[in-house]
Every structure is written in structure tokens, then in C-alpha cells.
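re: ur question from the group chat, yeah i did fold both. here u go
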Amino acid sequence: MRAAVFSDVHGNLLALEAVLADAAAAEVDEIWVVGDLVAHGPHPAATIRRLMGLSDARSVRGNTDRYVLTGEVSAMMPSSDIEMLVSASRSFAWTCGAISAVGGFDWLASLPVEATIVLPSGLQALMVHASPGRDDGPGLHPELSDQEMLDAGVADSGAALVFVGHTHLPMDRTVAGVRVVNVGSVSLPFTVDRRAMWTLLDADEAGFSVESRFADYDITAVATALDVEHHPSADWLKEKLLGLPVVG
């Protein structure tokens, strides 16, 4: 069994296509998508159509998927920053309109918070966006202590392997016998390497292995598309996408 596992696509169709091409070249059997599929990118409609059309995919929802569906904004966003709150609300509303126009709203709303997959060895793998049982909050990231990981429910999940995203920071750690892999981000990474990140899972009756991989794509073209598509948060997203301050 070979699976491509990735998270935080964020409506970045070019990055998604690069990852899917890499995954096809690696001859994967399945695609596992760990949430945050459409918000904060120039092409949410095309992205959700692509994901909906994958016959070999399993997906769970992320926090921004929920915000798109409900109109909520993150509870971690400072309530005093009115400009940021308004910008976020406009962004999620714009994305909701885009996916609704192509029939993606109900599909996105149907995604579970988490999914458990039984590997060929009989071990269980858990896919969840932030941490067991949660699509939001601080998530699982490299700065957490082992105790904080345990407090987040890693050992209580019943899984031998836990895949998360959310923080856009890759991590591969074993805590209390549970392998926890943050697969990083397809789009908007918080890492020096700006390429689309994904993880290759190899699993058989003897166990499993994971390997981080990167896919090249035209990041500048995506940044330009934010303006072309009149994304309401284009300037902020270009800064996140390129990893550089926006000038002008």
C-alpha cells in the first residue's frame, strides 16, 4: 500500500497539481488529504472540483474549511484587530461563493473531522487536521514537549501513526509509541523551502515507513493569480505565499 498524504492545499491549484503529479510518478494507490482545502488561494472552485474528482482519495476537514462553510473566523485571531477580522470574513465569504457555484459546498460539509485507516499490518493510522478530535487550536508542532503532545490526545487516539497538518510546520516524532507526522503544507509553508510538501506512506504487513517529499511549481504565477482573480486578501496572501514582505 502506498499513499500520498498532504495537507493545507488552500485553494492553490498549481501546487495541488504538482503534488498529484509527483504522487502519480511514485505510483501511489491512495491520496489522503488532511484538511484546509480551499480557503486562502486563488482557485478554490477548480481546486475543490479536482479533489472531488479523485476516486482514490480520503479527505478530512480543516479549520478554514469550517470557516468557509459557517462564516466563522479563528478564535485565535485578536478581536481588537478589526481590519484583520473583516479581511478574513471577506476571504471566507468569497471562497464560499466560489465553491458553491461548482457544487462543492455539500461535499466539503460532508467531510469528517478525522478518519482512521487500518494499515495492512493491522495498525491504525489517524488523519486529523490539527490534533486528535480537533480541526483547530494550536495543533501539533515541533516546539511541543512530549507531555504537551500527550495532553493533546496523541496516545489516546488508538493509532500507531497520526498524520496532521494545520501548523504548516513539518514534524516527525514518536511519542509514547505513536509516530506523529505533521506533513507540512502544500501551500503557504512556514518553512524556508517554499515548494509544495507532501509525504509518501509505504505500508505492508510488516509495518510502515514515511518519507517527506517536495514538488516544484510556479509560485509567482499563483501570487499573480490572486490579483487576477480579485481575491479580497491578495496582498496578505502574497506575503505568506512568497515568504517575503509585500512592497507597495
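okk and heres the other one u asked abt
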Amino acid sequence: MKVHQNTLYVMSQGSYLRRRGETVQVRLEERTVFQVPVHNLHSIVCFGNVACSPFLLGLCGEKQVPVSFLSRTGRFLARVQAPVSGNVLLRRQQFRWADDEKRSTRIARDIVIGKLVNSRILLQRALRDRQVPSDGVSEAVSHLRALLKELSSADGRDQLRGLEGSAARRYFAALNDLIVDQQPAFRFSKRSRRPPLDPFNALISFLYTLLLHDCASAAQSAGLDPAVGFLHDDRPGRPSLALDLMEEFRPFLADRLALSLVNRRQLSDKHFRHSESGAVLLNEAGRKTVLSAYQTRKKDEIEHPFLGEKAVIGLLPHLQATLLARHIRGDLEDYPPFVFR
């Protein structure tokens, strides 16, 4: 049974990571500021001007600890990891299924169902637990319910993507009503990326980056190729399967956490920087706050809805990747998406 381990996030500019025996040592200005046994780590993520020794990268490859390099603002740059583990027959089957429109549509449909159900549950909980404007949120819930019925008759992945896009627009339009504190600083009118144009977009974009990293690691650990997906098309450099896996977790993990950070005033406008071009990004203090909350959230325990077993949230992407691998092997008739209660 896989055990949840921590991700080491290194944000201090000028840091140098090196190997000391079986430990990872973080050096800054010729001082050791942190040291941790490599077997305690699930992965390492470096932001900006952070360097790693070749010996450390070799150790991480040997111990199956991927090292990712992101820009200072969180844009993915590169990833160093060991060769894909697992049976090559599984990956060959994954590639065949990705080229099979019928099979890939079936998996893509399950993924979109998971995303839409979780989006609807998030909105329903907000109506039940908080004093939020009900008209727009209720309409979005009804729209998502109707789209879920249409998914069963969707003909091909293009139509599935169209339904998913319609659901996302209505869901994001209602999300602003769930921001019950710190308006108008965190007003959310629509989804904007590359770059984010407001603080809430910057926040969820950063959380999606962290979630994508975890899902890519999960696919790798299950013996799957993170680049070959079923809902998302293949593109050079795109981790399509990781993007598939993260869809059902966006509302449950990233969006819920973003709303919590804003409504509990753990983040404020001072945690963001606004550029002359209109881009809005988390500053260093903001990123540290988000990373700390994300790590804490991943340690919470829930019951997996399909397996019926207790699991920490940080392991959920790995459990879903394993279930997908079992489906591709033929052990499960369908892929059971994650749906939170």
C-alpha cells in the first residue's frame, strides 16, 4: 500500500539542493537551512532560481522521487524523473485505447461525469451551508444536472468536450457568489489564464499547477504514460493523462481550497502583485501561504467512495490512477471517477 509522503517545495531564490548520504540538503547563502531523508519525500518542486546537484538528481531518480522545475510564478518548465515503472504491456494497451475512439470516449465520459458531479456538489454545499445569493447558484446546479443527463448520449470526445465546456462556463459564472468575503478585491467574473487577470484567477491557476504535478506523479507511479490521455488531445509537452486525472479533483481540492483561503481571510490583496500588463500573480508570501494550506489539506482523511477505505487526500490521485490502470488491464469494467460526498 502506497504511503502518503510530503512534497518539498523550494521557493527561496538562490537555493542549492544537494545530496548528503540518503538525505536532501537545502543550502542558501552557504548555510544549510533544511535537510530531510529522501525516503520521506514524494517529490520535489523548485520555483525560479533553484539549482540541484547532479548527485542529488541521481539519488532522486534511484528512489523514484521526481524533481520539477517551475518559473518563479509557477509556470511549469521541466521535470526530471526515473524511467516509467510498471508493465510495458499496460502502456501499450493505454496507447491502443487512446487511439480507439470508442474506448477513449468511454473513459473521457467517466472523467467528465466525475468533474460535473463534483462541481455540482460544491455549489449545492454552498447553498446549504452559507448565506450565498441563491438564484445564480441554483441555476448553475440545474444546468449541470441537465448536462449530466446529456453525457450518456454524447457521440464522441468532441461532443463531450463541448458539454464539459458549457458546464465549466456556467460553473465559473456561479463561483463568484461563493466568495462571501473580501469583495470586490476577489471578484471573479470569468476564467482567465496566461496570464490571470485578477487575484482569484491567479489563486486557482497556482493550485491547478500543484494539482497537475501530483496527477502526473500519480500516473507515473501507476505505470501509465502521463502524456497520453483520453479526454485531452496529445500535444508536444502536454501531460494529457495528468490533465485527465485532475479534472475530477479541480472542484474538490483546488476550488474548495481557494474559496476557503479567501473567505477565511488567510489571503488578501496584499498577497498578489499587479503588473502594468494587467497580469495578476501571487507574490512570494502568497505562494507560501497557499503551499502550506495545500500540504495541510492533503493530510486530511476521507473515505474513498469506490474502494470504501479510509485514505488521506494526498493519495487520491494515486488511487484514481491505479483504478484507471486496472480498467485498462481489464480488471474493472469501467473507470470509477472520484466523487466526494
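fwiw on the second one: Residues 101-129 form the longest helix (29 residues). The longest strand covers residues 31-37. idk if thats what u expected
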